[in-house]
Design a protein that fits this description.
- The chain has ten helices and 13 strands.
- It is an alpha+beta fold.
- The chain folds into two domains: 6-127 and 287-303, Aminopeptidase; 135-260, Gcn5-related N-acetyltransferase (GNAT) (Aminopeptidase, 3-Layer(aba) Sandwich), CATH 3.40.630.
- Strand 9 (203-209) and strand 10 (215-224) form a beta hairpin.
- The protein starts with 9 loop residues before the first strand and ends in an 11-residue tail after the last strand.
Length: 304
């Protein structure tokens, strides 16, 4: 006999009420599974998180949250791409029913979800991730590179090694002024996540070194299921001039070519970054952003 009735098909659970084993089993089986939905990732990267759970973990929606000036709000943690309503919804249940169950105490939403949020709100904005399927042989993948990339790679004389330090990469990346909104706590969480995953063989640092052993570019990748996530990148001015990041990405593609993996570039809507990813033959993969401002009128300006 099903212990769940219509009154508790969708339950709001605080973090300490969540069954970690059932949660991760739901994420693992979900058709929209990604690394960001697992308990370990959320515990490490989010300041706090609760969830909506549909039936007995048939589907779940993580709700990362923070509190500021007395108001509780939903947000997407740094180094976390789209979350999702993971799992299989009952046939009679719609996306709107689930989102309507988000407690009213969350007065502001900043949500990135794989699910089509335009079904919930006309204010939802479609955004782009970029992915490249690596099953084809390397030469077949390389043929789809932009011609200028192939020319650049033919001239490369640098050395790609998996020995760059995560601490060094974070320190260098944190010095880039254009990475807005990422603070020391975010980087500390990211470093801890890397350490946890590296122990499981699920995280790698790649460095691109000059013949003089100077670090020109570096990148951090997480690996989960059949996805390789390009989490963080850095290059020096000399590295940019020499296409060091191009060479680094090419090395990853070469290593995993012919295997059932997707290289997940993590976006982006920024034209220059999208152009860079598309040069490797990456294809767009849509997700949705929704901002719901339910703050009182007198403080709505806080998150304009």
């Amino acid at each position: 006999m099903n212990p769940f009735n219509k009154m508790n098909l969708i339950r709001y659970l605080e973090r300490n009420e969540i069954d970690d084993i059932k949660w991760d089993a739901c994420i693992c089986k979900a058709p929209n599974e990604n690394i960001y939905g697992y308990v370990e990732y959320l515990d490490t990267m989010a300041s706090n998180w609760d969830a909506l759970v549909i039936e007995d973990y048939l589907a779940v929606l993580p709700l990362p949250w923070k509190k500021k000036m007395g108001f509780t709000y939903l947000y997407t943690p740094r180094f976390t791409s789209p979350l999702a309503i993971y799992g299989q919804l009952p046939e009679t249940m719609e996306l709107k029913q689930i989102l309507d169950h988000i407690p009213k105490k969350f007065r502001l939403w900043d949500l990135n979800l794989v699910n089509d949020l335009s079904l919930f709100s006309s204010d939802a904005v479609k955004r782009k991730n970029h992915v490249l399927y690596l099953l084809a042989p390397y030469e077949a993948l390389r043929k789809k590179f932009r011609a200028s990339y192939r020319s650049l790679l033919n001239q490369a004389g640098n050395h790609i090694r998996k020995e760059a330090s995560i601490k060094d990469i974070i320190k260098l990346a944190a010095g880039k002024k254009h990475i807005d909104g990422t603070n020391a706590e975010d980087y500390a969480r990211f470093q801890n996540m890397f350490i946890h995953l590296e122990k499981k063989g699920m995280a790698l640092c790649y460095g691109n070194y000059s013949p003089k052993n100077e670090l020109l570019a570096a990148a951090v990748f997480f690996i989960s299921s059949n996805r390789i996530y390009y989490m963080l990148g850095w290059n020096s001015e000399e590295g940019r001039n020499r296409g060091a990041s191009h060479q680094l990405i090419d090395a990853v593609i070469r290593e995993y070519a012919g295997k059932d993996y997707w290289l997940d570039f993590e976006g982006s809507d920024i034209p220059g970054i999208a152009f860079f990813f598309e040069g490797f033959g990456a294809q767009p993969e849509d997700y949705y952003y929704l901002r719901e401002n339910r703050l009182p009128w007198w403080c709505a300006w806080i998150k304009k």
